[in-house]
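thread: overnight batch results

M.L. [08:02]
morning all. the overnight job finished for the chain we discussed friday. pasting input first so we're all looking at the same thing
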Amino acid sequence: MSPAVREDDRAQAEKHSDNTTDRAQSAMGSGDVLPLPTTRVTGAPRPPQFQSQVLALASARRRRIADLPSQPTDIGSRTLPPAPLESLPRPIRQYVEEAAEAYSSSPELILPMVLGVLAGSLGARREIVLKPQWREPSVLWLAVVAQPGERKSPVMSEVKAPLRAWNRRARAEFKRAMVGWKARRLQARQSKEAFEEERPTLPRISVDDTTIEALAPLLRDNTGGLVLLTDELTSFIGGMNQYKGGQGSDRSRYLSLWSSTDMTIDRVSLGGEPIVVEHPCVSVMGGIQPDMLGTFRRPDGRNDGMVDRWLMVVPPRRVSVFETDSMDPRTLAEYADIVNGLLGLQQQVAEDGFTKEPVPLGLTPDGRKAFASAHDAHMARLASNSVPPGMEGGWSKLPGYAGRLALTLHMVRYIINDAKSETVDAVSVEMGWQLVRWFAEHMSVARGMVSQTDEDRAVNAMVAWLQRHDGTATMHQIVTNGAAGIKDNSDCLAVMGALQARGLVAETIERPATGGRTVRRYQLLADMSGTADAADHAA
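M.L. [08:03]
and the structure it wrote out:
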């Protein structure tokens, strides 16, 4: 049992979440998710004094989070910006802050997971129309770049709790639907009547790991879209084409899936009948270790655009401390209500009278003006060649991501009665662009890691270790502490030789006045702010 949430707290939150959907009617066999009331939800009832305490509690919580001991990530001396919590709707900001405190984690690790769940829950129910020829779906692909032991798994388990509750209700409804279907089929057989009723299908909202062939029928049967949540993205990325000797088309199909491009799968194993999915929406969220970021590249080293499609975050390494505080069950319930509210939004029926498609949402006049201003400033930087090297492709996709984030957060605001209509306003647009600017800073570092060699990673790890030890150390100290994975003197000479070749350290030979063995000492050169970053992005 996680220390973050007591059993009674979780039971209370999940009971409240279940109560919000008691009025739902079964949609088995129709391809719908479980329908929910389309009215807005406002979360669990709160005592009158609660709202007056929110700001004070939030301020105190931010101070406690800031006081948690942390270690810099091994990215040289660069300081990455904190999560822009002020750009989030109040219930989401509160959830991220409480989860960070309860799990002794960082908001930077938790926020991408929450955004992935929210975007995936909205899925193909809505899309944003930035201009007549430019529409963006509610699809986010997010990667948290962190070492093992950063508590990604327990945090992700907490964040996707509302999806697990939804799946439980879906399975229960499916079992009841199957009982009724089998009874009607048996009755038809006994009376020798034709029985043409389709077999019920089990609604899904989340998947852990899947192939493109398995994903296609799931998307066909769940037109609202899916969320793929995985602890390790390495298996998801590396698994593309793994059953075809690396010669399949899975990777290219996933590239198209990011854009919500219509999908057609022709497979002999499926009886020869193609599976056609219109407006497929799959949001992906997972963690990946820095050493495995090279998985995003093709095996031949070329960039096919896969890495450009990911929003990456490099959270600070938080030193774990024992936390006795639980997350407020009201906060958990309000978060669950928002997720359920997004899942309960209905799609519209296309002109053919059969196909379901997203409801298009435009921008308010102020929203359009805000988006145009931010977009032009963003693209002007790209044109001025001031974008970090190798980031051009990813940078060009960030305006689309700003629209996707604005869409997701606006619908959250609409559900909690913070937006007057579903038309996306300037407040939501600014939220989306603030998040995009934050992601861009983290992506510039993560993208440097993608192209790093083993030597680059060893150099960066050693620079970070030396910086934490006053910038100087002897060979004996380096080997004894296993700095940067160094195991013996020969490893040390190789790594420190690479640092010397890059002009990052100076070596001195100290000869004791009383005789004895000489001592090799290494000293970081002055003003490492530029050189360390350069090492980070070395190809």
